[in-house]
Amino acid sequence: MVAMSLGVPERWLAAASGAGSASRACSRQPIASVTASRGATAFAQRRIAGVPAGAASTGPVNPGRCVPTTGRAGTSRLAAAASAGSASVSDATPERLRKVLEGLDELNSKDPRSVEVEGQQVPYELAYARWLTGWVLRLAADAGISQPSEELRIVARGQHVERWKVPRSSYPEGRTAYLQWREDLKKAHAATTTRLMAAAGYPEEACKRVEKLILKKALKETEGQIVEDALCLVFLERQFAEFFPKLVEQAAAAAGGGDPAAAQAEADAKMVDILQKSWKKMGPLGRAAAGKLPLGEREAALVGRALAG
């Protein structure tokens, strides 16, 4: 089967024959339930995923353990990337890199939206940056890169910096406007990140490298592919299960609340298309990592359909 040549796990393909309504091994905080933060505590005083106050902004701490609703207490759906993103910046970290990472974390800590992590409400983009950092470090190690470049580490933290400031709703409906929104976001993220780099003393060459990576103009290079794979993996691990119900709601609303089965079928088709496009963007290392994710039966069935087609 063609899909198997792409490294698709057999369990995903088997699940494609019928998703049913089986429960997932662990539920994550739904993106739809992201709520406004209530009087955020000063950033330096936060404790994220058990990190002592004052240490939250010093390194790629991954605050992403999901809280299980079934099974044994403490069970987690985190992939190995979680541990990869949990180490703090060491004393050997260059001062300029420390300044940029702390600056990006501080900006992301102002996100008015939040997500529950380890029983605490964490600013959403701060959590996202840590999830992405975890995957970037894991994939870099898988690629044989023992010491990721400073530029790559900065991109992992700045890829979506202050993303909430430019919501999709600020642009017209339609694909053309959507693509313009995405392009403008990338430029804004790159501008903010390179501004912090310049202030920290990075040369223009390093700033241009980070800009190129954030703008996705280095996809044929190893670092560019690592970032793209990491973005896709964060979606599969963190957002997929919560994003799909939104598609069902949108399809039902567009149909005026008509046939639920038809709305479900339309949402399935859209999700399959999204998954196919995501899979095409991923390289061998990203696909291998995706194949190890413990997807729930519903998600696995959709992935199986996408990759078997």
Structural class: mainly alpha
Strand order of the largest sheet: 1-2-3
Biggest sheet descriptor: 3 strands, antiparallel
Q: Tell how many strands the DSSP assignment holds.
A: 3
Number of helices: 12
Backbone shape? globular
Beta-strand fraction estimate: under 5%
Rg estimate, integer Å: 19 Å
Secondary structure: helix percent:
40-55%
Q: Uncertain runs with pLDDT below 50, 5 residues or more?
A: 1-88
End-to-end gap = 10 Å
Tally of discrete structural domains: 2
The helix-strand sequence is HHEHHEEHHHHHHHH
Average pLDDT for all residues: 75
Overview of this structure, please?
- This protein has 2 domains: 43-217, no CATH class; 239-309, no CATH class.
- The protein contains 12 helices and 3 strands; from the N terminus they run ααβααββαααααααα.
- It is mainly alpha-helical and 309 residues long.
- A 3-stranded antiparallel beta sheet has the order 1-2-3.
- It has helices at 2-5, 10-15, 81-84, 95-108, 124-142, 150-158, 175-200, 204-214, 222-254, 260-281, 284-290, 297-308; strands spanning 35-36, 113-117, 120-123.
List keywords for this structure.
54% helix, 309 residues, DUF4202, mainly alpha, 3-stranded antiparallel β-sheet, 3 strands, 12 helices
Structure, briefly:
With 309 residues, the chain is mainly α.
List the helices and strands and how they pair.
Elements (H helix, E strand, L loop, with lengths): L1 H4 L4 H6 L19 E2 L44 H4 L10 H14 L4 E5 L2 E4 H19 L7 H9 L16 H26 L3 H11 L7 H33 L5 H22 L2 H7 L6 H12 L1
Antiparallel strand pairs: 1-2, 2-3
InterPro entries: DUF4202
Pfam family, one: DUF4202
